């Protein structure tokens, strides 16, 4: 079969909203790496309705692409439909165990474990988590990293410290602070941390003097916040480069044993963390 020279990048519409920075930056890295390897990208934004009632996108039916990179978690049934299309598929920033698909993932558990442990080492024992674990596997894994650090630190989990910033339909909701406040929060994303910091400031909490905050992703939110945000840095460039390489390998060898590549994270220390003893 003659190669089209195009890769379809399918992204859920929620990850292409104006406020979303993480996935748009990954797409830019994907584009640069694809061009470097003599390929072009075709972006297709999958609506919520299309996710709920899976129908193959027109560009996939027309044999205009050589395969698919899924950028950000799509519904399981939608991914199953794409797998049945027989086109090469690479999952980027998520995975569904049991589907036997190639994927590139961030080490979410270890990243959030390191962030939470950092707070524990500074003396925090009352640590909250901001994120809805029902939304994506990534958020759930980040919660597991948080939970693991608490267990190892001998700190009991307090359900009142678990705060949601989005509902189960992925709509933004007001952040409601716990009645009895923790001394620190880890957040599922920099955007969630940014919104939390705004909420804390409106409630007259100082950051980090009263409450420490750590984000995840190392996006622009982490350096436009005040104070600048300590965060878990995700190597988006490496994720994109590995995804394109994996796709091209799969294109050349369709019987390749499915692989999972996990990209490590690092803590970027800025100004939003202090020890609990600094509170006045």
Strand order of the largest sheet: 2-1-3-4-5-11
Largest sheet: 6 strands, parallel
Low-confidence stretches: none
Q: Label the overall shape.
A: elongated
Classify the beta-strand content into a percent band: 15-25%
Number of strands: 12
Structural class: alpha/beta
Instruction: Work out the radius of gyration.
Output: 20 Å
The succession of helices and strands, N to C, reads: EHEHHEHEEHEHEEHEHEHEE
Helix content: 25-40%
- Overall pLDDT level: 93
Spatial gap, N to C terminus: 70 Å
Number of distinct helices: 9
Q: Keyphrases for this structure?
A:
280 residues; alpha/beta; six-stranded parallel beta sheet; six-stranded mixed beta sheet; 9 helices; 35% helix
Q: What's the gist of this structure?
A:
With 280 residues, the chain is an alpha/beta fold. It has helices spanning 22-36, 48-52, 58-61, 76-84, 108-121, 137-152, 190-202, 221-224, 236-252, and strands at 6-12, 40-46, 67-71, 89-92, 102-106, 127-130, 162-163, 184-187, 212-217, 230-234, 260-263, 265-268.
Your description of this structure?
With 280 residues, the protein is an alpha/beta fold. A 6-stranded parallel beta sheet has the order 2-1-3-4-5-11. Strands 7-6-8-9-10-12 form a 6-stranded mixed beta sheet, with helices on both faces. The model has no long low-confidence stretch (mean pLDDT 93). Helix 1 crosses helix 9 (236-252) and helix 5 runs parallel beside helix 6 (137-152). Helices cover 35% and strands 20% of the residues.
